[in-house]
Amino acid sequence: MRPIPEDTLRFVRLCVPLTGFAPFDLHATGMAQLYLDTARQQVGRYRLDTFLTELTEACTPLLDPSELSETDREIARAITYLWYTGAWPKLAVDAHADLRREMANTEFVVAPSTYVEGLVWRTFQSHPVGAKPPGFGTWGREPAELPPLTEIVQECGLAEQTGGSRPEEESTRGERSVPGGTRIEPHMLPGPRVARDVPPSALPTARAPRSERNTA
Amino acid sequence: MIETTTGAEAARGSYDAVVVGAGWAGSLIAEKLGRRGWRVLVLEAGEAGTQTWSGYLDSVRTFHSAVAKVPNSAYRHNAAAPSPDVLDLSPDASGSGEGRPEYTADGYFVQKGKMPYGTDYVRALGGAGMHWLGAVPRMHPDDFTTRSTYGYGRDWPIDAADLEPYYEEAEKELGVAGDAEGQRHLGVVSDSGYLYPMHRIPPSHIDKYCHEKLEGREVTDPMGDKRELHVRSLPQARNSTPAPEYDKRKGYRPKGAVGLPNYGERCVGNASCVPICPVQAKSTPLRVQDGFSDSVTLAARSVATRVLRGQDRRVRAVEYRSYNDPASPTSESHTVRADIVVLAAHAIENARLLLASELATTSGQVGRNLMDHPTTLAWALAADQVGPYRGPGHTSGVEDFRFGGKRRERAPFRIELSNWGWTWSTGAPMSNVASALALGGKSDGGVKTGGVFGPQLRSLLGSTIGRQLQLQIAVEQSADENNRVTIDPRRYRDAMGNPRPIIHYDLGEHVREGVYAAYEVSERIFTELGATSYTDHEPVDGVPPLGHFVHRGTDLTYHGAGHGAGTHIMGTDPNDSVVDADQRTHDHPNLYAVGCGSMPSVGTSNPTLTMCALALRSAERIHRDLAALSQPTNLRSRANAEEKV
Amino acid sequence: MINANEVHDAGFKVPRTIQELRTYLQAALEVEHLTIPVYMTGMYTIRPGTNSTAYYTIRSVLLEEMLHMTMAANLLNAVGGEPEVAHPEFIGKYPAQLPMSSTALAPIGLRHFSREALNTFLAIEKPRAFHTDEKDGAGWTSIGQFYDTVGQGIRALVEEQGEHEVFTGSRGKQVGPGDFYNSGGEVFHVTGLDTALTALEMISEQGEGVHDSIWDSDDQLFGEERQLAHYFRFNEIAEGRCYSPNDAPQRPPSGPMLDVTWEDTYPIKGDSTVAEYGKYQHGRAVHRKAVAFNETYATLLSCLETAFRGAPQTMAMAVPIMLELRDLAQQLYRNPHPNPAHAKDGYFASATFEISTSQMEQAKQRVADHVAAVGLEAGQPVDLSRDTVGSNG
Questions:
Q1: Is B543:B574 a contact under the CB 8 Å cutoff?
Q2: Secondary structure (3-state) at B239
Q3: Which site among C317, C385, C388, C389 would you substitute to test the A interface, given the most A Cβ atoms closer than 10 Å to its Cβ?
Q4: B185 has a pLDDT exceeding 50
């Protein structure tokens, strides 16, 4: 019998403001321990502890990334990317250097099952490509509705205090904004995959759509 | 259960026919000949393993753990029988503007053409039939006569009517789910009573979304070709509900997974057909191999090196090398005799073998006329959630620019409505996560500012990934002698010492016009859909994306479709074609070269079905040849034999 | 369970009337279903990425139990009965006594993947030949014996009354291979004595093997690849070793080793209840999901009942619900038990398989509405585009 160690439980709690998923969903991946081990290995045990302390302070309870140092911000992104995709990403070169990492700065999938447990698929109510199939003909169903931002905040237990980066609630449902009100800038979207061997974490971001470029 | 043997063991047998390659074409021919009692040896260059359930699961896990989930990502690298991979190509900024190629190639292919040949295949049991999508549209009657009807490309020595019974047989062998009525509307199925073995694969929500907004709308391409759009269901070699009325009400029983009883009898929506269907609801050549009779021997890790010439114009044997460890360059050579040799190793491998064997040289066409379906991608955000990354790769298409109209001026194209979001064009959804987080740093190495976390991140991703639409537009490429495969054994060899294919490839004006028209049409379709196009073919930080070219002042790109064709095309004249209508080489009466390499044109249909129909047709001819060869010696049969030679 | 315990309590007996036969077949449906939560628990408590052979073994048996349940429904429909599935009592209370079996058998509980769980599985699937106490008049000893009595009953009734008087059910109610897929063996229509006996043969032989062998009869009945019977499939996992083709049923497997890592499991408390989860502040999410699981399970049973009561095409809606249950169950098993004391001992949350009367009524209503809205038609291509019955997790 192996109870979940206390540091893993803490890691899961701290990953809630990073990922926007509640502890239940994070545990439900079955990957919490492996992710903590991976982060320790990639960043260094001591350095990760420092990061987690800094992270705690930057969350009120939502995370304000500007409260983090540049390197900590990149670590926060990497750990979030890990939960969302099952892969450890390629880091910004400066962060990689600052961490004095001894491994190659390349993206890798931690294990076949981490890919399968990626959270990104859950954000649009789907399943990982090549696993957890939903059954014959289900692709013909209308996609399930996405939860509004307030509901996600509530579900994560992040609503008690008002933080600096608390998202504005808007009811506008336009194609250029998220239900929660964030305007979608092109740099928030991926750009063309210039070559197939460039890992997802190293791809360029999108440029403004042609329609807007031409009028600009 | 599929049994495989080693190359050394196989060399001890004697065979009526030796088939090189255990993909779709080779497997179908071997199965047909084996069923007639002929002793057949099938030589597979690559590894076996996927025929067992644990081996198959290993492939699924290999795919899961791959960073780049490309078509070959489920199949392990093999130095003894290397495969070309789409990861081999990189863009190269130094060439742009100076007329030099804008790419470099670092893999199995030696690429010397102006443009990259972006098509892969996999050398393993089942071949590219393992990682294919399973799309099986037939070719249109017009596709067989582009030279005489539209003044470009080459005509076939046979027509659609000749192939129709073999199309039907292939659809049974592959196990096709489709809507025959829709295909009749297109004019590719002519039999008014024909049914596919299984009901069409259910359309995706994306299909319905597009149907609602596009059906009956008119779109004009830049050449002035005005078309009314229709969204049509795609026939697929994928298990669906059997049609009880099929085959005079005999019905059809779907074939399930090989190596695990009672599994894979229907598609469950894994959405990973390429590179691998985890439940084997997608048809693969393993199913055919599972039905091999005892007279068929299947040897893996056996790389054919040459076909050996015999007396007169006949060939007498196949020389091959067997290996034990794919990582080690050690191998052992064997020779096996056969009455008939069938090359079924992929268009490029067939050409490589013919060139290495110095056979079928009369026409000078071996290796020439290499084709593909250059595919341009278009991507957009819809105004609504559309439910991407669900179901097979694509379940419907817009077929209206495939036939007639301005085909003389620009290559025709087939528009696939992708069910898999922006994955091919942008590496989504993983790249969505990276961009939303502002991960990866700036070009100067600095850590980026911005990026969203937590509930905002989840919400942003849900909204932006859930609205992804992508069109994959496959453009016909016609035969061009200058697009070719050659070898130079002194300079370019693989680890085992076999010559590597050298590729010269480019896109002609007709294709470039087609790609350009496809791009413009895609923009108009997105307007009709009320979607915001993010299609972007321009250089990024001065680096041209792979497959980049400028046409009529517009930046465009294309990708390989994995539809390698040409290289030993069929015809009636031995002076300008390599094989006859039965895929028998003009030069050697007992040497066949089968597969997409025989196709004089590819139309806008994914070529596997046509290739399988041709293989089934050839199997009948090979059976007749073998029967004639084994006639007891008497005056009459000797006279016949002499007549043939 | 609705009928099974009653049949069990009445003691060993061959059904003599059509009514008795129907009661027996309803009991058969319940017995086949009783194993499903047990196998689901064993399978979904395996840690991701581990024990893949064991996972696929349990999965294959689980799906064959679904098939058996469906065939029991076909049998019941064929003799003019009306299958009852969407009933709060349909699910047994775990740990449950396996009906129509020796009372010496330990109760069947929900257990995480473990040696104990495999012992339970083996007890359920134990071949008749292994029961030494089986003879007429000695009472119920095994499920195999129960199916024998059903076969005897059908034969006698047909002899007495004629085939037409026994098989009075409508053909339209039969679930066929077009409706049910991707599972062991094959669903087929039961329309008379021959098909009824084949169905019974398939059900018992998939479980315990063809007489005196380790193999089932799928290869003979359906031309499938030869496959071990359930008992022997489970025994391979329990023993950590595969059978060789010529192994005898009474001997342990003698083939190559098979990798089983017993520690790669999420230990659970098999007797957890949603009420218990609800007591803990920390267990709110687990509670919510466990309730959602039970509601989804109720939806599955309602879909199955609809499929078994004249609309076999409704199976198309049932399969995606089973897959949704897979996702919900796995999420639960990977979360610590809401009771901090249990969590500290290393226990995880679990699906409880409890359905209340009101949950069942709501599920039936939901399914009725959706079946009407989706409008699946027999023999027509499947189109689930208007289906939203699942996805409440």
A1: no
A2: coil
A3: C385
A4: yes
Neighbouring C-alpha atoms within 13 Å toward the C-beta of C326 = 19
Closest-CA residue to B577 (of B568, B589, B566): B568
pLDDT of residue C94: 94
Going by pLDDT thresholds of 50, 70 and 90, the confidence category of residue A173 is very low
- CA distance to partner chain B, nearest, from residue C67 (Å): 11
Cβ distance of B241 and C218 shorter than 8 Å: no
Q: Is residue B502 part of a domain?
A: no
| Residue B181 located in a structural domain | no
Distance CA B631, CA A144 (A): 67
User: Between chain A and chain B, how many beta carbons pairs sit less than 8 Å apart?
Assistant: 343
A92 DSSP 8-state letter = P
Residue of chain C minimizing CA distance to B266: C182
Q: In the complex, which subunits touch A with 3 or more CB pairs below 8 angstroms? A: B, C
**Binary contact (A137, C383; C-beta < 8 A):** yes
Are B444 and B328 found together in one domain?
Answer: no
**Complex ipTM over 0.85:** yes
Q: Clarify whether residues B1 and B125 are in a common domain.
A: yes
* In the predicted structure, residue A21 carries a pLDDT above the cut 80: yes
Whether residues B362 and B290 share a domain: the answer is yes
Residues of the domain holding B434: 201-229+375-476+508-557
Nearest to C49 among A27, A112, A137 (CB): A112
Domain total of chain B: 2
B552 and B571 co-located in one domain = no
**Helices assigned H by DSSP within C45-102:** 52-78
CATH code: domain of residue B296: 3.50.50.60
Type of residue at B604: T
What pLDDT is attached to residue A182? 58
Instruction: Give the sign of the dihedral formed by CA B477, CA B479, CA B484, CA B485.
Output: positive
Contact status of A143 with chain C (Cβ, < 8 Å)? no
Give the fold, CATH level 3, of C4-262: Ferritin (1.20.1260)
| Domain match, B446 and B389 both | yes
Q: Do B344 and B379 lie in a common domain?
A: no
Nearest chain C CA: its distance from B504 CA (Å): 44
**What integer pLDDT is reported at residue A17 of this predicted model?**
97
For chain A, give the number of residues: 216
CA distance B575 to C36: 68
Top residue of C58, C65, C67, C181 to mutate, by most chain B CBs within 10 Å, is: C181
Residues 171-190 of chain A with CB under 8 A from chain C are: none
Residue with the two structure tokens 């028998």: B584
Identify the chains in contact with B, defined as 3+ C-beta pairs within 8 A: A, C
* Phi-psi group of B222: left, alpha or beta (phi > 0 → left; psi -120 to 50 → alpha; rest → beta): alpha
In angstroms, how far is the first alpha carbon of chain A from the final one?
Answer: 63
Residue intervals in chain C for CATH 1.20.1260.10: 4-262
CB of B464 within 8 Å of any CB in chain C? no
Same domain? B289 vs B390: no
SS3 B90: strand
Give me the pLDDT at residue B263, please: 81
Rounded-to-10 torsion of CA C341, C344, C348, C352: -10
Residue in A with minimal Cα distance to B274:
A130
Nearest to C314 by CA among C241, C254, C364: C364
Domain co-membership, B639 together with B544: no
Distance, CA of C22 to CA of C15 (rounded, Å):
9
